[in-house]
Amino acid sequence: MKFIDEATIKIYAGDGGNGIATFRREKYEPMGGPSGGDGGRGGSVFFEADQNLNTLVDYRYTRTLKAQRGENGRSAECYGAKGEDLILRVPVGTVISDKATGDSYADLSHHGDRALLAKGGKGGLGNIHFKSSINRAPRQCTKGEPGEEFELYLELKVLADVGLLGMPNAGKSTFIRSVSAAKPKVADYPFTTLHPNLGVVRVGENQSFVIADIPGLIEGASEGAGLGHQFLRHLARTTILLHLVDIAPFDPAINPVDEARAIVNELKKYDELLYQKPRWLILNKIDMVEDVADKVKAFVKSFGWSGPVYSISAIKGVGCKELTYDIMTFIEENKKIQNEIVISE
């Protein structure tokens, strides 16, 4: 299935049914009073988060969605039936906003979250409501109100604890294959990853975290070059970013330090908040270099890095286990801090 993480749709709530003007015509009441019933309310449009979905592809080709109209009123004071509500299921992590203004309407971040986006119109009134002491046979009735309509922008931001950053061919997909059960495509050419992949990393019996692998960034990504900038939104909810660097590139002309700086610059241009997230430096492919300690030390010095540094070989699993344990510890400590902040507020 093609991965779709954004869509634009138009939604229409159902119009209310019309009220009617009728009169009782029975055997012993040939000239009875008013008996027109009210119209039914139109159906509303709801969005609901469903953990069984992982793409917005259903809304890429079906752009217009309408709830059912309310039924018209009937004689004998019978009210019209309410229009059936339209429930649109979307992946967990979907953000819904107004296409024209950009105002956010809903952020469905948990399974079962539901949001009412368009209310159905009220039903019209039948002539029974217009009867009075001076108007015994009213012929007035009202039409149903139109339902709300909106043009919406749907944006999927996957829910992951850890996000992977890096140039194409840095080894991000190999790393996620090494530490989780996810099996993204791996090949010896750039841009192998064309859409985000999620993997669950199990550290202990009741300890696990979700890691997201997005297509690699290249220089100029914030201006639209390459694929990675389209998927940076998926890192917005992460707790920590892992910046993977290929420390042993095939092309001798490639400088790993320059590539690492390019990634950081693109991240800063794209989103300052994303740039401020905790970020660890992961030097990959140490199995392909000699004097690893010296190579790592020289890289860190040239890059001017003062944060956490890990050297791994994703393809052989060297250093990956220790890294996942440290990530789990960091995530748990961060959750404790966030809970304390919420309690203090």
From TrEMBL:
Keyword Magnesium in record: yes
Cofactor(s) demanded: Mg(2+)
Residues binding GTP, per UniProt: 166-173, 191-195, 213-216, 284-287, 313-315
Class in the EC hierarchy, top level: hydrolase
Sequence ranges assigned to domain Obg in this UniProt record: 1-159
Annotated GO MF terms: GTP binding; GTPase activity; magnesium ion binding; ribosome binding
Keywords: Cytoplasm, GTP-binding, Hydrolase, Magnesium, Metal-binding, Nucleotide-binding
Pfam family of the protein (one): GTP1_OBG
E.C. no: 3.6.5.-
Protein family per UniProt: Belongs to the TRAFAC class OBG-HflX-like GTPase superfamily. OBG GTPase family.
SUPFAM superfamilies in UniProt: Obg GTP-binding protein N-terminal domain, P-loop containing nucleoside triphosphate hydrolases
A GO CC term assigned to this protein in UniProt: cytoplasm
Organism for this UniProt entry: Candidatus Methylopumilus planktonicus
UniProt-listed NCBIfam families: Obg_CgtA, PRK12296.1, PRK12297.1, PRK12299.1
Keyword Plastid: no
Subunit structure: Monomer.
Annotated GO biological process: ribosome biogenesis
Gene3D superfamilies linked: GTP1/OBG domain (2.70.210.12), P-loop containing nucleotide triphosphate hydrolases (3.40.50.300)
Domain annotation OBG-type G: ranges: 160-332
Residue numbers binding Mg(2+): S173, T193
Location(s), subcellular: Cytoplasm
General function of this protein: An essential GTPase which binds GTP, GDP and possibly (p)ppGpp with moderate affinity, with high nucleotide exchange rates and a fairly low GTP hydrolysis rate. Plays a role in control of the cell cycle, stress response, ribosome biogenesis and in those bacteria that undergo differentiation, in morphogenesis control.
Protein name: GTPase Obg
